[in-house]
Amino acid sequence: MDSKLPLSVLLLARDEARRLEALLPRLGFAREIVLVVDAATRDDTREVAARLGARVHERALDSFGAQRRFALERCTEEWVLWLDADEQLDDAAEEAVRAALATGTTAAGFRLERRTWFLGRRIRHCGWSGERLVRLFRRARARFDDAVIHESVAVDGAIADLAGTIEHRSYEDWDACRTKLVAYAAAGAERARRAGRRAGPLDLILRPPLRFLRMYVLQAGLLDGAHGVAVCGLAAAQVFLKYAELWARPAGPRE
After folding, report:
1. Looking at the domain that runs over 5-171, which CATH code has it been given?
2. What is the 3-state secondary structure (H, E, C) of 108-159?
3. In the chain, where are the structural domains located?
């Protein structure tokens, strides 16, 4: 008798061989792991994923929304669990997923709480706490949007909450912080550019400090100590880079 859940785990990855070595063995409760590898991957992500039982597909990344849709189309199970390579379910979340699928639920999707860690410390404020995301859903009733970055999934039907958390450890060292800052700023500028937005001097002058103040004061980042200062500062720097790029290249990359 198959003890695995009627579940496809949907993953995207680029240069994530090390994380996949730790993550994939923890996903043995799912019948299927579908991993789409960015064609620009430079490490052995493909080989590690295949060795650990994932169905691996390769595609050049144009937007995260399109990449997720490509992956979703290759899932075959009734239910889909969306994770990133830097995320893991804790024991309570895994048990909640098992229970939800075993009860014959009528829900179309479920939200899970996500906790984010920054340089080894859990961030409890800065707007990062209490985040609940739709990550488990019926394949036939879900669709990803077209977002360049920070994509989301729309689910047709009732959505409920599950116990447990997704542990998100994206910012493990300073190199990762710097890399993500630049990449997210560029993606944010491209998203704004596609929407027909432009940037001017006031965007460069006002938006970065306003972002810092919102996160540090209104969202109580000051209670996260030095880590909170760093998180809010990086967010403000990302905003500056985003609008600087949008200002410098309003119509897209120069020829």
Report:
1. 3.90.550.10
2. CEEEEEEEEEECCEECCCCCCCCEEEEEEEEHHHEEECCCCCCCCEEECCCE
3. 5-171, 174-248
